[in-house]
Structures are given as structure tokens and as C-alpha cells.
Write a structure and sequence with these properties.
Arc Repressor Mutant, subunit A, rod-shaped, 2 domains, 4 helices, about 0% strand, about 100 residues
């Protein structure tokens, strides 16, 4: 356990490990030892699951639903701003021609 662990754990593995602690009452140290993980890692998973519930452990690069919606709205806003700027420039061009 002294060296850096580069293993990746599935969402189900993490949830099951935490459930062993929360629902079955098995101490964190014992669960961690049985699963060959560091107890601090299990504590982190426990905090995350308690805080985020079903949205915990969504994986790398994946966003929570509210974060995905925020990102989509930000992209849409940026697109609308670009369209607005193009229309402003076009208005300027066409208003010069009519003089």
C-alpha cells in the first residue's frame, strides 16, 4: 500500500464497498483490508456517496445532469451571442448602403 495505486474501480464496486460500511456496519478498516484498498480511499467514497447519492461516481469526463445542462446552456448562449454580433455587423453594412 506504500506505492501509488493506479487501479480503477467501477461505480458498482465503490457503491458496494461503501454499503458494506453503511448498511452492514462493517468497520472501514476491515472493508478496506478485505478489498485491498486504502482506508482513506474508502472514506472518500463514503463522503461522496453520502453527499451526492445516485449522482456519485459518474466517471471521468462525465458530468452530473445539472452540470451537463449548465454546459449546454453556456454553449447555446455563446452561439446566440455570435449570431447577435453577426446581425449587428450586417445592420451596420446595410445601413451604410442606403444612405
Amino acid at each position: 500500500m506504500g506505492k501509488k495505486d493506479s487501479r480503477h474501480f467501477t461505480r458498482e464496486f465503490k457503491k458496494n464497498a461503501v454499503q458494506m460500511v453503511l448498511e452492514k456496519g462493517i468497520p472501514v478498516g476491515r472493508v478496506a483490508q478485505e478489498l485491498d484498498i486504502h482506508p482513506n480511499l474508502l472514506h472518500q467514497w463514503k463522503r461522496k456517496l453520502v453527499a451526492d447519492g445516485d449522482d456519485a461516481f459518474i466517471g471521468k469526463g462525465n458530468l452530473r445532469p445539472e452540470e451537463a445542462e449548465l454546459k449546454r446552456l453556456q454553449m447555446e448562449l455563446e452561439e446566440v451571442k455570435e449570431e447577435r454580433d453577426i446581425l449587428k455587423k450586417a445592420l451596420g453594412v446595410f445601413s451604410k448602403r442606403t444612405r
